[in-house]
Structures are given as C-alpha cells and as structure tokens.
Design brief:
Layout: H1 10-13, H2 25-38, E1 43-46, H3 51-57, E2 71-75, H4 78-90, E3 97-101, E4 110-114, E5 123-126
Parallel strand pairs: 3-5
Antiparallel strand pairs: 1-2, 2-4, 3-4
C-alpha cells in the first residue's frame, strides 16, 4: 500500500508511472506540518518517482531527488506560492532544496521542496 498521512494518500505520494510508493517518512512529516501551518489543502503534482519515470521527465535522470522519496512538487502560484516559500525558508532545517517554477500558466506553476541531506544542500534554484 505504501506510506500515507492524515491529509496525503498513498496514491498521491506514489509514482504516477508504476504506482510504487517509497516516500520518506521524515519528508511526509514535514509536508504534513506544512499542510497544517497553511490550514488548507496542498495539491501535489509529483512526489515519489521511480528511476525509470524520473529519467523520462527530469534532467536529474535516474537518481534525482524524487527517486529518493524525499521530494515533492506542489502546484501553487501567487499568494499561495509566497506562503509556501516563506514557510519552507523559515523551516530550512527541514526543507533543504527549494526549486521555483512560477512562469507560464498559473495552473502549471509549482514549488519543488526536498529534504535531501547532501553537500549540495541547502540550495535554491529556478526552472
């Protein structure tokens, strides 16, 4: 079945390609904390991705952040994106990677958040 929480189902945390769910508990706890701080639903466009699927949709190939189960892409723009970004920056001891994609149609804009512990973190980038 896979990992889930009060506000996030196993299905939305699973790979949309193969259905596998290897989402990280620490990252899920941080995501749940973000959801509770915002006081409203968060729509994920991507969470765990199997290496094969990640290789087709991301420049990070078969070993990107999503393949570790420690990353999410949150669909958001405008004020909501600002609120999420502010929270993530305040909680930088948890959220180590922040990617910002806020160009184009509002319904396709997103923020990437991850909890990776590497020499490349903390890190902020734009798409």
């Amino acid at each position: 079945m896979g990992i889930s929480s009060k506000n996030f189902s196993s299905k939305e945390l699973s790979c949309s390609h193969c259905g596998e769910n290897k989402f990280d508990q620490k990252t899920l706890d941080a995501l749940q904390e973000l959801r509770e701080a915002l006081g409203k639903p968060i729509k994920l466009s991507s969470a765990y991705r199997c290496p094969a699927y990640n290789n087709t949709v991301s420049g990070s190939g078969k070993s990107g952040p999503h393949t570790t189960g420690c990353a999410v892409d949150i669909l958001c723009s405008g004020k909501e994106a600002h609120e999420i970004l502010t929270f993530a920056m305040i909680r930088s001891s948890i959220w180590k990677g922040i990617g910002v994609s806020q160009r184009g149609e509002h319904n396709s804009r997103f923020l990437h958040l991850d909890t990776l512990e590497t020499d490349m973190r903390p890190w902020v980038w734009s798409y």
